[in-house]
Design brief:
The chain is mainly beta. The chain is built from 4 helices and 30 strands. It has a 6-stranded antiparallel sheet with strand order 6-9-15-11-12-13, with no helix packed on it. Strands 18-19-25-21-22-23 form a 6-stranded antiparallel sheet, with no helix packed on it. A 4-stranded antiparallel sheet has the order 3-28-1-30, with no helix packed on it. Strand 21 and strand 22 form a beta hairpin. Helix 1 runs antiparallel to helix 4. The radius of gyration is 31 Å and the shape is elongated.
């Protein structure tokens, strides 16, 4: 029996010896990781050039090496918020300020508030009241919401459609001192050809405030506020920054209205937007994507994008949110070529960086190496995640910053080896043979036990 056990151990050792272990010179490029503070674990935000240089969607062609060019354990994870986010909507009380401009801007009226800051009543001299029934200013009470607002949705009355109006929002915490909060926001309700262009939402800075002052810019055009709803996260979650990048136009067919783009990297794409080169342009499009040039196209969005000037106000389509994807190739297909001029549109996308954590084993400097088309298995360390969590790693993790970039193997590392992978074939042969040997050993052991019992 011992000979079978020794044989199995031999095959197991041979398997490990046959496994391919990439060295630092196998990667295309590297980035020196500067670790100024002494720590056990370091965190590094992957920069844009890494996404342009990797070839594997699972980042299996990324490694971290120490000064002796030994691999150190690492893990890559998508940025996440530390606090659960609960999205809520709440209707806000508001008060039309039907007073003349001086009375409003100089706060020449009395506001009665409760002990908790809630606005109860607004009163001014009768001489200050503007006979115009359509107020130009409104006081909005946000004091009962203890969280920073993400956005506000307005419901406007007075016209069913056909307007595009700019507004200003000012903020205050004491109803006396007011500061600019949002300038030149646009509320739009238009019919343009066969399309309805409606935008009643104003995005807000991530800041806790108690009161807002709403102002129509220019004439009110008989418009008035019917209701206001605030959108906010139940917890003050700090969202990680997104970066915007323009994809490269690689193919176009103006006659058919088809434009193909290359993101030039494996980015975590969360939003897309079409930039139109000429004013007064409206297009109906289908946006598709695929991971590589041989895969089928998959639809990501269908709808309209526009760039219009109405009453000296530019109106554009907001970016479109999609399910996060790492697809590299994108296509815009116009449903009609009548709405676009001779200049092709451009495609922009928003993406979010990943965080890399590595164990500072060995001496610095540490090198982040990336880019190898022949890497076949991730060398990341899942065990590191048992340490990296909010409850255990406080004080253990420090931040590494990007240092000098370096050329390692270069573009040759990005070429996939088309030859027969003899080393991998040998590995599988060893595995199959090892399983067979262990099966024979177990079979004979069972037979021997039956003999001993009888």
């Amino acid at each position: 029996m011992e000979k079978y056990l020794l044989c199995a151990l031999f095959f197991t050792g041979l398997v490990h010896a046959t496994e391919e272990q990439l060295i630092i010179e196998d990667y295309a490029k590297g980035i020196e990781l500067i670790t100024e503070n002494r720590a056990s674990i370091y965190q590094f935000t992957l920069p844009e050039q890494v996404y342009r240089g990797v070839t594997k969607v699972d980042f299996s062609d990324i490694s971290v090496f120490n000064h002796a060019h030994e691999q150190v354990p690492h893990i890559i994870q998508q940025q996440k918020s530390n606090t659960e986010s609960i999205y809520e909507t709440l209707e806000l009380p508001y008060f039309p300020l039907r007073y003349d401009e001086i009375t409003v801007l100089e706060n020449k009226f009395d506001v009665t508030v409760s002990s908790k800051g809630k606005v109860i009543r607004i009163q001014a001299d009768s001489d200050a009241i503007d006979e115009n029934n359509f107020a130009k200013h409104y006081l909005i009470d946000v004091s009962q919401i203890d969280y920073a607002l993400d956005s506000i949705d307005f419901k406007i009355g007075g016209k069913t459609s056909g307007y595009s109006k700019k507004i200003n929002l000012e903020s205050s915490n004491d109803l006396n001192n007011w500061t600019a909060f949002v300038r030149d926001a646009t509320l739009t309700d238009l019919e343009y050809g066969n399309y309805s262009l409606n935008n009643m939402r104003v995005e807000l800075p991530n800041k806790k405030i108690k009161y807002l002052r709403f102002t129509w810019l220019g004439d009110t055009e008989n418009l008035f506020i019917e209701s206001i709803k605030a959108n906010f996260n139940k917890y003050n979650v700090v969202t990680n920054k997104k970066d915007w990048t323009t994809a490269k136009l690689i193919n176009k067919n103006n006659e058919q209205g088809i434009y193909e783009f290359d993101a030039e990297g494996l980015f975590n794409i969360e939003q897309i937007n079409i930039k139109l080169p000429e004013v007064n342009t409206l297009i109906d499009v289908v946006i598709q994507s695929r991971p590589d040039a041989d895969s089928d196209w998959r639809k990501q969005y269908q709808g309209i994008f526009y760039k219009l000037y109405i009453n000296d106000t530019e109106i554009t389509r907001e970016p479109v949110s999609i399910n996060t994807t790492k697809h590299r190739y994108w296509r815009i297909m116009l449903q009609s070529i009548d709405g676009i001029g001779s200049i092709e549109p451009s495609l922009k996308f928003a993406w979010r960086s990943n965080e890399l954590y590595f164990l500072a084993r060995g001496d610095a400097p540490f090198i982040l190496a990336y880019g190898n088309a022949n890497a076949n298995a991730t060398n990341a360390s899942p065990e590191l995640m048992s340490i990296i969590n909010k409850n255990t790693y406080e004080g253990m993790v420090s931040t590494a910053i990007a240092g000098q970039e370096m050329l390692l193997k270069g573009d040759d590392a990005l070429i996939e080896d088309k030859e027969l992978p003899w080393q991998r074939i040998l590995l599988w042969l060893v595995l199959v043979t090892g399983v067979f040997v262990i099966a024979v050993m177990v079979y004979r052991l069972i037979k021997q036990m039956e003999t001993d019992v009888s």
